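Re: that chain you flagged

S.,

Sorry for the slow reply, it's been a week of failed gels. I finally had a moment to sit down with the sequence you sent. For the record, here it is as I used it:
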Amino acid sequence: MKIASKLKTQVIVVGSGAAGINAAIASARNGAETILIERDGYLGGVSASLGWIGFHDQDYRQIVKGIPHEIVENLWSRNAASRYELDIKCGSIISVHSHHWKILAMKMATDAGVKIMLQTLFVDTLTENDRICGVIVENKSGRQEISADVVIDCSGDGDVADRAGAAWEKGRTQDGLVQAPTLVFKLGGLSREDFIEGCKNPALNYREWVEPYLEIREKLYNRLDQMEVIICGGYAPLMEEARNAGELDLPQTRIVGVKLHKPDEFLVVMTRVLGLDPTSVESMSLAYEKLYAQIPQLLDFFPKYVPGFEKSFLLEIAPAMGVRESRRITGDYQLSTEDVLNGNEHDDVIALGGYHVDIHRTSGTWVDSMNVQTYDIPYRSLVVKNKEGLLVAGKCISASHEAIASARVIPICMAEGQAAGTAAAIAVKENKELREITINNLKNTLIDQKAELRETLEPIDQNLIEQIGQLPKAKEETTGERDLASSGVQSWIS
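Prediction finished late last night. Pasting the structure tokens below so you have them in one place:
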């Protein structure tokens, strides 16, 4: 196809989700001429539709700061986000006004000097041997070539790296199955008071993984009235009642969602399909069909069965499903399961993780969970093996199936993005290959820009742990039925 125009820049960022928007801002702020390519008409990706979990580790220390925390502070100034709500399983959660975040993302990118190309689809890479020297895109102006010194793949699916011939893995080692995706939607009309009263009813078990720990449960129940944001993962008896009545047929046996900082809003995270191949358009299309078919069931279920939802109604559906796992690009180092479980340290740390391993089962219902120690994400996991001029950030970094189930959450992806953008700008400024930049220079630059690394991590506050409670770190949590056959639900993508 004819090339309509050719452009040149120093750094290209493909995808403007949690990782991409931070990568582009960081690159531009550090002096690199930067183009941000986004297929939709807004910035922020699926991060605009979700609660942000994982700013804090399981000891309640804030492990993600830098540009991501600056974003939160800006949202606070607009009364467009909750405070950090500390959580016994997720470390913390913050509720964000989706449209204010879109506005802010655009402002921060343009203020940094990023050139934004919206409604622009990545098509292919420009390569010379093993060097990625740009991308081909398609938009209203036709097909364009954009050359660059560094390309950062923040597509989520590792599309850029794949087109460049990079090696990758997908799903579980034994069968390649990926975590179940979700199409979230938001309900309005919630009665906060009635919802909280329902949460306090032990028979309804609104937070299932807390129930065995009576002391922690009581501390949580005592905090509910003061909490802006409440994570829900339970209510199995209500789901079973509706299923037995023939009113629910979906591969989810618990109510999963978040009461948002707006008192009458609730984010529903319950739709799911199994057997998705996120690299196949046929599979993705079938998944959307099934996910949209599940939403009406839940719209009927909530007002009939769940306390506080008697007058609830549909506010909005996320513009895209949340794909928890796709291609994991092979890097110079693979972040391992042992790294996240044991809190392993690395000399080239560029971000920290502390969110629990949270695997939405590839088969069966609900989740497998493993508690983690705060761990280092090494720069080598962002550098694509056997390729030059290419970095990855977000859920497509080099990591195991279990490790990415921790490192995939929005704040950690944001931190990876800031690191990738900063590294790209340093490489451009110093006229070096990405592997040649000085790690200490990268780390010091990130620290100067208020990113959190191992060197700056605050000590554990035992008083805070005592106040909130803490789940046993060594225990593996398994919740919900193991196999699909046990629930009688058939919602596979084939």
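What I noticed first: The chain has two domains: 3-171+325-460, 185-322+474-486.

Talk soon,
D.
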